Amino acid sequence: MKKFTLTLSLSVIAATITASAGASADQKTIAMEGVHYIKILGKELKSNVMKRMKDDPSGLQSAYFCSKSAERITKEINAKFPEGIHVRRTALKIRNPKNKPDASDLKVLKKMEEESKEGTLKKKPVVVQVDGVNRVYVPLFVEKGCLKCHGAVDRIDPKVRELLAEKYPHDQAVGFKEGDLRGVIVAEIPAEK
Ligand code: HEC
Q: What is the CA(131)–ligand 1 centre distance, in A?
C-alpha cells in the first residue's frame, strides 16, 4: 500500500512571507493573519481525509466524507472566527458548485495558473483588497494523494468515480497531475477592524 501523503506546506508559506520583498509591513501582517486562518481550515480537512484514507485506501470513505462534510466543517470553522473573518476554497476547475470563484478570485487564479505553467508560481500568499475586505490567497498544489479523487478519470477507483458522478454531475476537478495548481484557500479579513 502506498503511503498517503497530504501536506499543505503551509509552514513553508509562513516562512516565505517574512522574506517576500516589496510587500509593505501592513501587507505582511495581513498575509500572516490570513495564513493563520487558512491553516485551520486546511489542517482540519486534511486530517479528516487522511484518517479515512488510511482505513480505506480506495479513497471511497474519504470521498464520501468530503462530499458530505467539507461544507459543514468550513461553516463550523468560520463560526468560531472573529466577526467578519471568513475562509473558503475555490478553483478554476471546480467540483462543488458552491465553491465557484467570483470575478476577483478569477483574476488571482488565472494569474497563478499562468505562473504555474511558466514554473514561476511561488508558494506564498497573495493579498488583494476587494470592497474594503482584504483577501489572502494561498495556492494549493496537487500531491500524490489528491490524485485518488482529482487525477486522471481512468485512474480513479470505479466506486469513487461513481460517487463523484452521482454527487457532482458537472465535476470539472479531474485530470490533474502531481504539481499542478489545484486551487486556493482564501481568507477574507475586513480592512477596517
Ligand atoms: C477522497 C477524495 C478527495 C481527495 C483525496 C482530495 N479531494 Fe479535493 N475534493 C473532493 C471532493 C468530494 C470535493 C467537493 C466537496 C467539497 O470539498 O466541497 C473536493 C473539493 C476540493 C476543492 C474545492 C474546490 C472544488 O473543486 O469544489 C479543492 C481546492 C480541493 N478539493 C483540493 C484538493 C487537494 C489539494 C487535495 C490533495 C491535497 C485534495 N483535494 C484531495 C475530494 C477529494
A: 28
What pLDDT was estimated at residue 22? 55
Q: Which amino acid is at 108?
A: V
CA dist 86 and 157 (Å) reads: 34
Mutate to test the pocket of ligand 1, among 96, 106, 159 (most ligand atoms within 8 A of CB): 96
Question: What cell numbers appear for 33 in the block?
Answer: 493573519
Nearest to 107 by CA among 92, 121, 93: 92
* pLDDT tops 80 at residue 8: no
Q: Please, are residues 157 and 59 in contact by the beta-carbon 8 Å criterion?
A: yes
Nearest atom in ligand 1 to the alpha carbon of residue 8 is 38
**Per-residue confidence (pLDDT) for residue 6, from 0 to 100:** 47
Q: What is the atom index within ligand 1 of the atom nearest the CA of 141?
A: 35
Q: Which residue do the cell numbers 470505479 mark?
A: 158
Task: Give Cβ neighbours of residue 42 (< 8 Å, ≥ 6 apart).
Answer: 8, 10, 138, 140, 185
